[in-house]
Amino acid sequence: MSLLINDIAPNFESNSTDGLINFHEWIGSSYAILFSHPKDFTPVCTTEFSAVADLSLEFKNRNTKVIGVSVDSNEDHIKWTDDIESVSSAPVNFPIIEDISLTVSKLYKMFPSEAYLPDGRTALDSATVRTVFIIGPDKRIRLTLSYPMAVGRNFSEILRALDAIQLTDKHTIATPANWLSGQDVIIPLSVSDDDAVKKYGFVDKKLDYLRYIKQPD
Q1: pLDDT: is 127 or 97 the higher one?
Q2: Domain around 208
Q3: Is 45 one of the annotated active-site residues of the chain?
């Protein structure tokens, strides 16, 4: 069974490029993004790690830690970092988890429990390890995404979703389709018209059940 939104993110201890990590302790009071990859030294994954490196300040400004996991050795991760930095405009300043044993991949339901990786494997052997989890400071899973092998992840969308999660954690609101930070948001059905006006001022009522307000701070 897959992990679901609001499940507690499984904790683990694993070696990484930053040393031994206890995942829950590492998250601390921050939000966290765990993103996985099928293999080091592959083209799409290299562009994705480069994109995350370039966005390091964006994640920091959102009180969010980022951590990668790939089913290769820590030694390979460190060597791969040189390639990533050669195509990015920033250093790789986030850890990459070593998962040769598939412990983390299986814990996060990326592989069946009986899965193993053959010697001389290709990225296709670990194709299912291509997922994203956004995790809150309460250690609960807030979002999951899975991508096919040939499709690189859109980290602008991951940032957008993170913004929406953090805003809706702070206020009793929801975000509409294609919402971007700074745009109008939606009052949920649990809030009456009168209460919405008292709390937020002007309410733009499109339908009885669709009411917009300016994004609160």
Answers
A1: 97
A2: 171-213
A3: yes
